[in-house]
Amino acid sequence: MGHIFEGVGVALATPFTHNEVDFDALRRHVKYLLDNDAKSIVVNGTTAENPTLTDEEKNQILEVVVNVVDGRVPVIAGTGTNNTKKSIQASVRAREIGADAIMLITPYYNKTNQRGLIAHFTTIADAVKLPVVLYNVPSRTNMTIDAETVETLSENEYIVALKDATNDFDYLEDLKQRLNLDTFALYSGNDDNVVDYFDKGGHGVISVVANVIPNAFQSLYDEKQQGKNIQSQFKSIQTLLDALAVDVNPIPIKALTAVEGFGNYEVRLPLVTLEDNDRQILEQAYEQFKAGGNA
Q1: Which one of the listed residues 39, 58, 158, 163 is annotated catalytic?
Q2: Are the C-beta atoms of residues 220 and 237 closer than 8 Å to each other?
Q3: pLDDT band at 218 (very low <50, low <70, confident <90, very high)
Q4: Is the dihedral of CA 46, 49, 50, 51 positive or negative?
Q5: Is residue 4 within 8 Å of 40, Cβ to Cβ?
Q6: What is the pLDDT of the chain when averaged over all its residues?
Q7: What string of H, E and C letters represents the secondary structure of the chain?
Q8: C-beta separation of 121 from 158 below 8 A
Q9: Using an 8 Å Cβ cutoff, are 161 and 179 in contact?
Q10: Is 135 a catalytic residue?
Q11: Half-sphere exposure in the Cβ direction for 225 (13 Å, CA)
Q12: The dihedral of CA 101, 35, 254, 58: what is its sign?
């Protein structure tokens, strides 16, 4: 089994209008991403405000995305929870709807040990029989998938990729020594480290900022594959990323998707929108980025 995708996967935000999922805006957003070189769409993950979505909403969102994408790029459904049985149920439903792969976060709150991770991920993968992207984000779950554990999990025919949000390059080097990177993909989960991540052999990124600048972000990967230095090209993107760091994801990126007309600027509690001054500064940074011909 080869890599699910290479380059930029978009961690899709969920558009809301009057606190309801705006499916028209969702369709427009996905079409925009497809027209601007996104290589994969990741649905119902952290950026989608997954914990605030009902099961029905998650299924409806996935169905809309699958229908709009229509096979043009892989659709990856975030179905992982801290409940193995519920993760299987959500993953089976995603397969029925037409997802090409699933993404599984490490269990949180009732977090387990490494043996538990192996049992949890393997049980889901074997039950669902879809390609699996493991999601390692210790800043949100307070646990990590050890490199040795990833190596063990990679022996499962369905577990074929890792979204690595550790920002730990020693961890990346350890993974590279242990894994067959012809068949197992390593995707950065941090937009701000992609220059180094690509330079060190990463296969792509599952990106937040690509919700609004998919083409510019994909061009970084393409240029790198051609052996070019992308550091200078990244500088303007870094300025935008600095502005996006004003608050926790997805609060800032939702302001920018709203600028592009993909729903209102709304998030669901417990998240709250930016203060007016912070929002204005962020939107100005985005407009300056676009004015530079980067979008």
Answers
A1: 163
A2: yes
A3: very high
A4: positive
A5: yes
A6: 97
A7: CCCCCCEEEEECCCCEECCEECHHHHHHHHHHHHHCCCCEEEECCCCCCHHHCCHHHHHHHHHHHHHHHCCCCCEEEECCCCCHHHHHHHHHHHHHHCCCEEEEECCCCCCCCHHHHHHHHHHHHHHHCCCEEEEECHHHHCCCCCHHHHHHHCCCCCEEEEEECCCCHHHHHHHHHHCCCCCCEEEECCHHHHHHHHHCCCCEEEECHHHCCHHHHHHHHHHHHCCCCCHHHHHHHHHHHHHHCCCCCCHHHHHHHHHCCCCECCCCCCCCCCCHHHHHHHHHHHHHHHHCCCC
A8: no
A9: no
A10: yes
A11: 11
A12: negative
* Token code pair at residue 241: 């990323």
Tokens 């961690």 map to which residue?
Answer: 11
How far apart are alpha carbons 204 and 185 in whole angstroms?
A: 8
158 is catalytic: no
**What is the spatial distance between Cα 199 and Cα 85, in angstroms, rounded to a whole number?**
38
User: What letter represents residue 81's amino acid?
Assistant: T
| pLDDT tens-digit series, residues 230-274 | 998 999 999 999 999 999 999 999 999 999 999 999 999 999 999
Catalytic hit among 135, 158, 197, 221: 135
Helix axes 55-69 and 23-35, enclosed angle (nearest 10): 40
pTM equals 0.97
pLDDT classification of 294: cutoffs 50, 70, 90: confident
